[in-house]
Structure formats: structure tokens, C-alpha cells
Amino acid sequence: MAQYSYLPGTDILTGWSSPSGFAVTRAFEPHRDLLTAVSNRYNDATVSAFDYINDALARRTARIDHRGAGVPPAITNAFGYNLRSELTSAALGTNAYAYAFDPIGNRLTADEPEFSAAYSANSLNQYTRVSDSVSSVEFAPEFDADGNQTLLKTATGIWHVTYNAENRPVVFSNDTTMVEMAYDYMGRRFYYRETVGGTVSRYERYLYRNYLQIAAFSLMNSRTNELTNASVLLHTLVWDPTEPVATRPLCLQTVNDQQQTNGYYYSFDQVKNVTELFDGVGQIVATYDYAPFGAVFPISDQAVNVFTFSSEVSDCVLGLNYYNYRHLNSQDGRWINGDPIEEKGSQQLIQKKVLNVSQYLFVSNDGMSTFDALGLTEKPNSREGRVRCTHKCQLQTEGCDMVSILTSVPKECCEEHEYTHLADIMLEGDWCSYDKNGCCVGAGEYANSASY
To answer: How far is C-alpha 12 from the chain's CA centre?
Structure first.
């Protein structure tokens, strides 16, 4: 049975350990529940560790990775943001990434190691043109009347997409491959069938507990590669019970063709991304790195594992990440269809003074400090989103437009002044919750600000 430890007087998880010898410890800032370090150990030997640096607005500005036997020399990763806290630059080891966005959050440009593109968007915040300067190819996405993207380009190619009446994708197809899906009454994908060249190559069904997948079955005979009437168990999962909705898988048990089982354990970074997969004796059998918006780079992958970015299902056939309610296209860094609650989601964001209101936006364009729950609600990099402050604060950047008109002070200088003032307030005082702009909204008491 796993044992959990918490920060004294709080419900903030500081670590857990299992009878098998695996243990995780977590360290936090003294005045905020923001992670500063995570260490993964097996039999008291460190197998991987991560250090984090956060700025005054709770944005992750650096991550230092230590991985492998004996924990080799560190790899430093750095992140930069604009005044709306959108990720605009990332240095992940030797790879550099850069992004620019319009005031609504639509991409203007993206520069990645193997992808460099300019984007154009219409009045509905749908991309109408993606010009890739690396391949010198221009792609024109297509959408239906409900705002669902029916022609999309991912890392694996161009796909035609058909949606059902609930705006969920049910068929992806191109010249050689067709992928079919079906959903139950709760909107959970329970069926996945891949056909290549007219022959079914993969046919799976899934079991869930609430929205957590707990088992996968194949309806294919692995030896003959033919359909069968019997369901063959592929894997089972155990999830972290401390977070019942937006949680992390703890253990994976796979079943091979000879019905032999193998057990694996997961480790994670601060926003639920799976970083390593360990076998039963503490050896790393798979390691994962990620581009800023979810592209998965398995450094090694000797085990069957599809739970990677945000601890969600990564589809290597489609090049998408499945979040129960929506699919994320990591190449464009956004959802392939709009928010299920449509304009109400944008209205809620406007009421909370969040400037980015596109229904296709993924975690306000900041996958380094934020993750998403089920494709519906973004979460901060700390579970509760608590900081310390002496009193309520206000971020008055809305008035900077008028300041720039009435005075000689540029708008950018006015906004920078307000952010600096906010940073000074946030670094001292009592616990409180804070809104998207980092402003205190409940000084003097513990409060939960899990969603923005």
C-alpha cells in the first residue's frame, strides 16, 4: 500500500512511497505552493530529479533536468513570456522554440527545430492559412458550421475529420488510413479502430472509472492479425487517488502475446507530463521530452505506454492528444474544435479579465506552467494555486490604453509598471488565492483557485 506525506497543516502533497521501493519527494517555495524540486528514487537511490524556478507571477521560467544512472550532468531549460503570460520562447536543451500571438491568443508565428510557420486567422479565431517555411508548403484548414476543424494537419500528415451530432470526431481519414471512434453516454471514447489499406490493423475498446481509463482490450488476434470474438487484455492502470479528476497514472500493467504481465511505474513533472517509465527493479525503460505545446519525444520507449503529455492519451497515428472532451493538435498548439460550452467559456474568461478568449485556445498558450483537465478547464502549475500576499491587489493594465493617449508614457511601460507593482505585493504576507493575472482575491485564508 502506498504511503503519502503532506506539508504540515496543509493538504499539499510532498511525496509518496510504495512497498516496491519507489518513492517521490517534492519541495515547494516557502511562501507559495509552487514546486521547486521533484526527486524520483528507487531503494533510496535517485534515478531522476527536476528543479524548477518560478517568477513572481507563478510562471515557470526554468527547469533543470537530472536523469539516468547516477544522475548525470544537468540539462537546463528556460522559458520566456509576454505580458499576457503566453509562452513566447523556450530553450529545451539544445532546441530553441519561439512563438508570437495576436491579442486574442491566435498564433502569428511559430519557430521550432523542424517546423517554422506563419498563421492567419478569421473573425471566428479559426486558422485559415498555415505557411510552413521549412517545407515551403501552405496549408488551408477547413471547418464546418459548428466550428469543428474538418481538415487538419498534424505531425503525422493531413486528415479529413467527420464529427457526430455532439461535435466529437468519429472518423479520421487520408489516402491510406482510416481511424474510427465511438463514445459512450458520458462522452468517453470506448472504441478505436484503425484500418490501413482496407485491412483492420488495430481494434481496441476501453473501460473507465469516471473519466480515467483503467483497462484496454484488443479485438485482434496478435498472431494472425485478424479480428476475433474474444477481447484480449492489453493493459490496466492504477491512478493517483489524491486527485480524482485531473490526476496521474501511478502504475501500468501490460500483457504480452504470451499473456505474461509486466509492471511499470510513472514519474512526472509539475504539470502532469510523464517524464519516465520504470520497470519493477527501478530501471528506466522509457523517457519522454516534450515541445512546449505537447509534441512527444520519447528518448527511449521499450514499453507499451500511451499516457504521456498531461498524463493523457497520445495518439501516434493521428498526431493528437486525447483529453476526453477534445483532441489537442500539438503542432498548432490548440484544440481541433471549440469549447463544448461555446461562447459561455469566452464570457467567463472576459468576466475574469483574461484577454485570450478564443474557443480553440489551449491553456492560455502556456503549457509550461499550466495543464488542462478533460479538455475543459485549465489548471495552474500548483494544485491549489495559492500564494502569499499582504492584501488584495489590483492589476490595472486596462487603463494603460488611456494613459498612452493622455500622456507621453508608452502603453508597454505602463503595463510593465503594473506587473512590477504586482510582483512586489505577491512576495510577502498571508496565504490567499489569486486570479489569472496573479491578483489576490482571498487574503488571509486558504482558498482554492483551481480553475481560472
So the answer is: 21
Q: Are 37 and 50 in contact (CB under 8 A)?
A: yes
Question: 294 CB contacts (<8 Å, ≥6 apart)?
Answer: 309, 310, 321, 328, 330, 333, 362, 367
Joined together, the cell numbers standing for residue 408 give 507621453
What 3-state class would DSSP assign to 309? helix
pTM of the model: 0.76
In this structure, what C-alpha cell is assigned to residue 68? 539516468
Angle subtended at Cα 423 by Cα 420 and Cα 429, rounded to the nearest 5 degrees = 145
Q: Nearest-CA neighbor of 90 among 111, 105, 73?
A: 111
Report how many helices (DSSP H) and strands (DSSP E) the chain contains, helices first.
3, 35
Whole-angstrom distance, CA of residue 403 vs CA of residue 418: 12
SS3 96: strand
Half-sphere exposure of 323 (CA within 13 A, CB side): 29
| Closest C-alpha among 76, 66, 14, 65 to residue 45 | 66
The answer to whether 25 and 18 have CB atoms below 8 angstroms apart is: no
For the stretch 386-414, pLDDT in tens is 333 333 344 444 455 544 554 555 555 55
Predicted pLDDT of residue 436: 41
Q: List all residues 6 or more positions away from 325 whose beta carbon is below 8 Å from its beta carbon.
A: 187, 340, 374, 375, 376
Reported as a single tens digit per residue, the pLDDT across 187-228 is: 899 999 999 999 999 999 999 988 899 999 998 766 556 676
Contact status, residue 147 vs residue 155, Cβ threshold 8 Å:
no
Host H or E run for residue 117: strand 115-121
Report which of 361, 324, 374 is spatially closest to residue 436, judged by C-alpha positions: 361
**Number of residues in the chain:** 452
